[in-house]
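Data card: per-record layout.
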Amino acid sequence: MTTYHQPLPQQQSGTLFLTDGGIETTLIFLEGLELPYFSAFHLLQDMSGRAALTRYYERHIGIAKAAGAGFVLESPTWRASSDWGRKLGYSGDRIAAVNREAIRLMLELRSKHETAETPMVVSGCVGPRGDGYDAGRLMSPAEATAYHAHQIGAFAGAGADLVTAITMTNANEAIGVTRAAKVAGMPVVISFTLETDGRLPTGQALHAAIEDVDAATDHAPAYFMINCAHPLHFQHVLAPAPWMQRVRGIRANASKRSHAELDAAPDLDAGDPAELGAHYAAIRNRFPWVNVLGGCCGTDHRHIEQICHACKQAV
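The structure for this 315-residue chain is written out next.
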């Protein structure tokens, strides 16, 4: 059963909420695991994979508990939608079942670790139908609603508290996810991928994408986030304007490389965790309501520790 409804705990105060880092890059490059198509959910098929996911989340939970921060348990389901599941041989029923299993794991972790000082929120993670770096063929909002309804319905049935759509590359798909979540009665968060110029892969400005989603959905998202870019790529577009009040979270890349450079790189660029934390703190100093903080490509527990340390001092 869903524990939280809107407003979500991370919306109710300035309390810091952490989440995890770049789960796929951590598991592949640091843990040596194979994730076909970056599909972390595939690890749920056996006990060793489930144990690896549990260790990953518990390491990040420990950082939040030590700091007295809240924590968003983001399910390992970024690739667990119908098209991506089909590439791995999952039927529609089986991909729905693995999404439910992922939420059950998040609920188990909350039951084991949540405290009064560290409230935990379970989020069903939705990824793009296509590539997280490239908008590719744009769906209509109606097509995106129909596509994402299957996965979001599984989250709702399993008892997730909210849906978070990560690496959204375009407003149409974000509108579709939002509408599907509304139909399922789920709070939804939209997180946009940004390029080195601070714009979406489609070229649309961040503020315009947020305004488009809000206009098309009657301001349905609980809040918006920024992901998959280094703060140096987007901090110049953040402004004290009404749309910025809708941005509450950041999951930045560790690397300052472009998406094209990251795609071509044979290594993992982990950047400088302390420097990344300082960038987060600078943003939080300007916009103190930005309180949901995690990482994207190349980040791991070291970056989350530094982000937490810097931002606990910032406000």
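Known properties of this structure: The chain has a mean pLDDT of 93. The domain at 16-314 is CATH 3.20.20.330 (TIM Barrel).

See the next section for split statistics.
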